[in-house]
Each structure stands twice: as C-alpha cells, then as structure tokens.
Amino acid sequence: MENKNAWLKYDNTKQVMDFAEDYRKFISQNKIERECAAFFIEEAKKDGYRSIEEVKKSGKKLKAGDKVYASAMGKIVAFFQIGKKPLEAGMNILGAHIDSPRLDIKQNPLYEDEGLALLDTHYYGGIKKYQWVTLPLALHGVVAKKDGTVVKVVIGEDDKEGVLGVSDLLIHLSAEQLEKKGNKVVEGEALNILVGSMPVKAASSKSAGKDEKKKDPVKENILKILKKKYGIDEADFLSAELEAVPAGAAKNYGLDNSMIMAYGQDDKVCAYPSWRAIQGLPKTDRTAVCLLVDKEEIGSVGATGMHSRFFENAVAEVYELCGGYTELLLRRALANSNMLSSDVSAAFDPNYPSVMEKKNACFLCKGIALNKFTGSRGKSGSNDSNAEFVAKVRKIFDDADASFQLCELGKVDQGGGGTIAYIMANYGMNVIDSGVGVLNMHAPWEITSKVDIYESFKGYRAFLQNA
Does position 349 have pLDDT exceeding 90, yes or no? Predict the structure, then answer.
C-alpha cells in the first residue's frame, strides 16, 4: 500500500500554512517544559478553563461542557473538557510530552580556566554529543532563591545580548579526535559552555587595583552581571534549573517553505496540535483530555513524569467534582478510556536509507504517523496496540479526511525507542502512538512537514470528538 502525499489534496494551502506559522511562533518562544506549561495554561484560561483548585473553592459541581485543568510544579498539566456521559464511560485522551533533549547546567557550574569563564553541564536525554558543539546556545529556566522568590532566566534570545556555546577542537589538531568512535568524539564532561572572557578590571575601571588581585576576575565579572540583571548569587545555582538550548527562532525550511526547522520538535510538534485540538472543542459525549507531561526523555520518571500518580490523581479530583466518586468508578473510567500517545516518529531520510524498511517506514508529507508498537529487540518495552482499536482510529481519521500512515521505528533489530503509551496502557485503556514524522530527531535542530502538523491537528480533534 502506498500513501499519497497529503499536500495533493489541498488546492489552497492557506489553512495549513497559517496553522504552521502559529506553531512556529509557539515553538520559537517556548523551548522548555516550564515555558510550555505556562503558555498552555494561559491559553486555556482564555478558552474558559479553570483550575481544579478554583472549582473546589467555589463549591460547585462540574457539568457537561465545563473546562478544568490540573498542573504540578510548573512542568506537567492536564486539561479536561467534561463530556455528556459519566466519567465511568471513559475519556478520549491526547497525551504528549513537553521536555526535550538539552544540556542542563550543573548545581555547582561556574568556573574560570585560563581567563575564560565556563558553565559545567550534564546532558539530558539521548543526544549525539558531537552535535552540540559550535552552536549558538541560550539559557532558559528558573533560579529559586532562599527567600522564596523564583527568578525566570532567559539569556541569549535577545539580539542585544550575547549567545553562549560549547567550543570544538580545530581540524588542524584533530587527528586523534577523529580516530574515536562517534559516541566518544566529544565526551559528556567536555560539554562546557563558554560564557565570558572579560575580567572585572576591563569591565569597570573603578577600583582597578583591588580587582587585579581577584583570583578569578572573569568569573567574578559574570557573577556581577548575573547579580545586576537577575539578583542572583553564585550560591543560587544550587537551587536552579537552567537548560542550555539552541538559540534563535524556528525557521521555515525548504525553497518551498513546506517544512519547519526548530529545536525541541520532539515532542512539541505533537503537544501543540494536541492543545489546539481541545481548544474551542464543541461539547462531546465523552470527556476530552489533553495531557502534557515532563521527563519522557529520561524514562518518564519523577513527580512530573508519566510514571507519577499525577494524572490518576487529577482524574480522581475531576471525578469528585463531577459527583459520585469511588475508587472502583475511577478504575473503570481509566480502563474504559481511549488514548492517542501524541509522539513523534522517525521519518525516512534518503541520506540514510539502510536503517529503514520502506514498506513500513514513516515518510514526511504523508500525514499522521501511527505506530502500533515501538520498543526494540522484539518489541521489548512497547505498547502493542490491539487490532480493533487500530481499526477504530483508522475510521476516525478517514472520516475526518486526516491523512495517516502506519509505520514502525526503523528496521527490526536496528534500534528502537519508547513513549508514554505503555504506561497509560497499564490502566487497561486502548492506546496507540500517533504523531508527526521528524528528520534529525534529537538533534539540536529537527525538521518536520507543515502538512503533517496540520493533519495531526485534524486527526486529534476528530479523535476527541468520535473515539
């Protein structure tokens, strides 16, 4: 079977391009999980969503059409639009993750070496370390101070301020380096970010004699800059979450502007259409849910990952506000649910055809990528969606004219990967991975097709309405 290029069904591509431009702006401005969660919550409030805590304080019960959300630690959020049927009948869920591979700043990071100030890092998620050198980087995140204040930090995105970066060895002296295997060409401990070279004396002529005696004058100058701009001291790094990500806006890609190049498209390229699918959604029979989680790139662990009890607790709170909550009814609600694990798939790359089996590969411009299973080494660690549910999703997408393709993640025994699908399937619900094909996955800059993004939005909305 051959899937048609999804562009061919559009005589007028304005709706595709307009949606993609909204997405491009979103991903340019929201690069880390905290920024994404805050963005979606603000958009939700405009759409009539109220926090569960606000509803609890009001003393009112939820009814069909009501919209509520739950969030935790600023990094995980779930949106619920209450359906006409009781929760026991199950929910239609879209679940994506909003964390992406990056370089995290260590807790004791700042040091000076031979007149250069650097920040020590620990990479997050699966990366090819050599891809992260000689790139313009920006710092995003927060610094939590002992007085209880939390300072938001963004450095390197304003054209008026400098970007940061990790240096690389010049080709003229790289003979030994180039003999190493790819995973050793750049070591993790070598991913140190250069942040400054100006000592205190050069930055300010006042009290020059005193400044010359400082042990690390360049480091001292960096601390002065941070103090002036953000009011933070060196000790505040101990309680900071700072992430180094590629600096700059997402770009239209291709001579025909048909693609987008951006950092963090795994998995924001699925998170954004998932949110747009529930935003402004007409009333539905079953409760519609958009779930956006953290920590997927490191195993979905921790209080904001899918392995936590966050979602289960949120559903319990919603059930209590709807009335009639019991532990048994909560279990039924989860088991009777249907879910699209909104996550990306590896798109076929003509430069590297040997890792794909073409009949079952994902291709750009051919619509939503449905992965019946992921995992590796004989489907290990995957959710293998049942055939009946696959058929149901096929019908929903066909009825909505949402182009889709069934695919798998590379050749058998070539490698593999996983998503949050298997975790949600533990409740007994139907789950299948459904997302956008990506080139350069986990690289600093990833490539997606604009038409695939739009087809995902169409398919996601139809799923919320009809699953």
Answer: yes
DSSP 282: P
Helix and strand numbers (H, E) in the chain are 12, 22
Q: Closest by alpha carbon to 82, among 94, 73, 92?
A: 92
For residue 411, give every residue at least 6 positions away whose Cβ sits within 8 Å of its Cβ, in sequence order, or none. 355, 356, 357
Q: How far apart are CA 159 and CA 6, in angstroms?
A: 37
Phi-psi region of 378 (alpha: psi -120 to 50; beta: other; left: phi over 0): left
Distance, CA of 101 to CA of 114 (rounded, Å): 30
> Any alpha helices (H) in 323-439, and if so which ranges?
327-335, 387-399, 421-425
Q: Of the candidates 132, 143, 141, which has an alpha carbon nearest to the alpha carbon of residue 166?
A: 132
Contact 91, 333 (CB under 8 A): yes
DSSP per-residue string spanning 38-64: HHHHHHHHHTT-EEHHHHHHHTPPP-T
Whether pLDDT at 214 is above 90: no
CA atoms of 256 and 247, how far apart (whole Å): 24
Q: What is the mean pLDDT of the chain?
A: 95
Which residue did the predictor score with more confidence, 284 or 411? Answer: 284
Token pair listed for 301: 């662990």
Whether 209 has a pLDDT exceeding 90, the answer reads no
Return the ∠ at Cα 440 (arms to 438 and 446), rounded to 5°.
Answer: 70
Q: Categorize the per-residue pLDDT at 32 as very low, low, confident or very high, splitting at 50, 70 and 90.
A: very high
pTM: 0.95
pLDDT, position 212: 52
CA dihedral angle for residue 258, residue 12, residue 361, residue 253, rounded to 10 degrees = 0
- Among residues 285, 313, 332, the alpha carbon closest in space to that of 464 is found at 285
Angle at CA of residue 234, ends 228 and 235, nearest 5°: 125
| Average pLDDT over every residue of 315-341 | 97
Helix runs in 47-189, H state only: 52-58
Please state, in angstroms and rounded to a whole number, the distance separating the CA atoms of residues 35 and 374.
Answer: 29
At residue 96, the 3 state secondary structure works out as: strand
Residue with token string 């591979």: 101
Burial of 424-438, coded b for 16+ CB within 10 Å and e otherwise, reads: bbebebbbbbbbbbb
Q: How confident is the model at residue 411 (pLDDT cuts 50, 70, 90)?
A: confident
Higher pLDDT, 304 or 413: 304
What is the predicted pLDDT for the residue at 414?
Answer: 81
399 forms beta bridges with none
pLDDT in tens, 259-292: 999 999 999 999 999 999 999 999 999 999 999 9
Strands of the sheet with 240-246, listed across from one edge: 150-155, 137-144, 240-246, 102-113, 116-124, 193-196
